[in-house]
Design brief:
The complex is a heterodimer of chains A (95) and B (416).
Chain A: E1 2-5, E2 9-12, E3 17-21, H1 35-44, E4 52-58, E5 66-72, E6 78-83, H2 84-90
Antiparallel strand pairs in A: 1-2, 3-4, 4-5, 5-6
Chain B: H1 5-13, E1 31-37, H2 41-52, E2 59-62, E3 78-79, H3 89-106, E4 117-121, H4 124-139, E5 145-147, H5 149-155, E6 170-174, E7 178-179, H6 182-195, E8 199-201, E9 206-212, E10 215-221, E11 224-233, H7 239-243, E12 252-264, E13 272-275, E14 280-284, E15 289-300, H8 308-321, E16 330-341, E17 347-350, E18 356-360, H9 366-383, H10 397-400
Helix pairs in contact in B: 2-6, 2-9, 3-9
Chain lengths: 95, 416
């Protein structure tokens, strides 16, 4: 698989480490009343879809950026690559 | 029809006209007491033991494709019980004992071959860990033997114990481990289940569950609605897809694991050898092909095919430990889809929905577990209580902090 890095251009996926579902960006609020349940679901439960999947790839053997890659789990086709930082900020995270 | 040597000779002398299909091809009935979703090894074994050991009636196995077309036909056929943790080892030893009696039990030649499995040791730390593991195995009634470098030299003279990148410093052997003809496992269980009255319905995909007031009443399928008293799901690899139809999210990701077979060779490799330091393991099939594999590709996939970086990695591992295999040509390679659970261990449990039961999360260890998985799932379905060897395989262990994490990797499914 070739991942089209937003800053570096096309890179081989073997330079990256797969870090799971991009929903992990949305860490639950530790002060919420439901925090125990929320963190259990955050830590352990996954949608695991067959089809399009937003997922985190860490450019470990590269610029060490984190990417959100939109990839089809049935075909391995990649349709979109974004910096995870940008995705997180768009969702209201400070960094 | 019972198979025997006498029967083979009789048929040979009479033109092989007396053989009949090994199982029927029934149309689904409107209602069953128990429906098993998934006609793979685990599903068929579950149906077999439900009918034979637990005397249940009116059972159906629903398979979306053909039986044995999934992971039971896409693995590297190894059986063993060399686990460490209390939640796992009794279960896998139970499974190995069932393997040992399986062919007589279901009257089918599954070519169970206890040729032994050897885990290689390269460091002092690894030796300590394997001594501990071997002791855990022995405490649970399994067999384990720690081999010295000299014993390895004598038994496996082709291994480099002198100047390799990872010099071999011993090994942990389980002599009762080995290999089994994987397709025959599916066929044997199918035939056995069928002979006890189980309906095996192929080309019947489950498209949904009918759930009312928290109770599962049956399944919607490509052949229409089929009612059921109890529904058991055994579709490892696709568990998340299936259980999403009951609005469940599971503690697992689906990953692709590749495996490889070389051209047929004269006998070169006795038993199974695992080279953990190089992420490589290998055995030789009875046809002579070298059957080998290594790590997961490492990303979510339902594609049943992997990518080239892992092919390269596996072959590098193979060349490091068995340089002589470099001349062998690759005959086939394939990918299977694994339920990679969050702690690397499986789940055999009831769901929160009444009448709906789950079996999955087998990671890449499902084949060796087939008999015990079927037996324990049958026990759960028949008695509503977990089998004594499978009490730890609960859904709620993640929430309660009771993980069974053999590798100590945490909730990173692609590292288990």
């Amino acid at each position: 698989m070739i991942i089209d890095h937003p800053l570096l251009g096309p890179r081989d996926s073997s330079e990256f480490t797969y870090m799971g579902d991009a929903k992990l960006i949305d860490r639950p609020d530790p002060d919420a009343d439901t925090a125990a349940r929320d963190f259990y679901e955050y830590g352990y439960l996954r949608d695991n879809p067959a089809g399009w999947h937003d997922e985190l790839w860490f450019h470990e053997a590269g610029d060490r950026s984190w990417l959100v890659v939109t990839r089809n789990t049935l075909t391995h086709e990649i349709s979109k690559v974004q910096l995870a930082r940008d995705v997180a900020r768009n969702r209201g995270r400070s960094k | 029809m019972r198979y025997s040597g006498f029967k083979v000779i009789k048929e040979a002398l009479t033109g092989h006209k007396g053989w009949t299909p090994a199982w029927r091809d029934p149309a689904p009935q409107a209602h069953y007491d128990i429906i098993i979703i998934g006609g793979g090894g685990h599903g068929l074994a579950t149906a077999y033991y439900l009918a034979k050991e637990y005397k249940q009636k009116r059972i159906a196995v629903l398979e979306k494709g053909w039986i044995g077309g999934g992971n039971v036909g896409r693995n590297t056929t190894i059986i063993r019980s060399n686990y460490l943790l209390d939640g796992n080892e009794p279960f896998y030893e139970f499974s190995l004992k069932l393997w040992e009696g399986l062919e007589q039990d279901f009257n089918y030649n599954a070519m169970v071959s206890q040729r032994g499995i050897l885990n290689l040791i390269h460091t002092d730390a690894q030796r300590d860990a394997f001594i501990r593991r071997g002791n855990a195995m022995i405490l649970n009634g399994a067999d384990a033997e720690l081999l010295s470098t000299e014993q390895i030299k004598a038994r496996y003279p082709f291994l480099n114990t002198e100047d390799a990148r990872f010099p071999i410093k011993g090994g942990l052997a389980q002599h009762r481990g080995g290999t089994v003809r994987h397709d025959a496992v599916a066929w044997g269980y199918a035939r056995g289940a069928d002979s006890h009255g189980v309906d095996i319905i192929q080309n019947c995909e489950v498209t949904g569950f009918r759930i009312e007031n928290g109770k599962c009443l049956g399944v919607e399928t490509s052949k229409g609605f089929i009612g059921a008293g109890k529904v058991g799901c055994a579709v490892a690899g696709s568990s998340s897809r299936l259980m999403a139809r009951a609005d469940m999210r599971l503690p697992m990701e689906s990953h692709v694991l590749q495996a490889f077979v070389s051209e047929g060779l004269k006998p070169v490799l006795p038993g199974v050898i695992t080279f953990g330091a190089g992420h490589f393991y290998c055995s030789q099939s009875d046809k002579g092909g070298l059957v080998f594999g290594g790590d997961l590709d490492g990303y979510n996939s339902y594609a049943q095919r992997g990518n080239l970086p892992v092919v390269e990695d596996v072959c590098e591992g193979g060349m490091a430990i068995f340089p002589s295999f470099g001349r062998a040509r690759l005959l086939r390679m394939w990918g299977g889809i694994m339920d990679m659970s969050m702690d690397g261990s499986p789940i055999i449990d009831r769901t929160h929905i009444d009448g709906l039961y789950f079996n999955g999360g087998w990671c890449y260890g499902g084949f060796k577990a087939t008999p015990a998985s079927g037996f324990c799932f049958a026990h759960l379905l028949a008695t509503d209580a977990p089998h004594p060897t499978a009490t730890a395989y609960r859904f709620d262990r993640f929430e309660k902090g009771l993980m069974i994490d053999e590798k100590g990797m945490g909730n990173q499914p692609n590292l288990h």
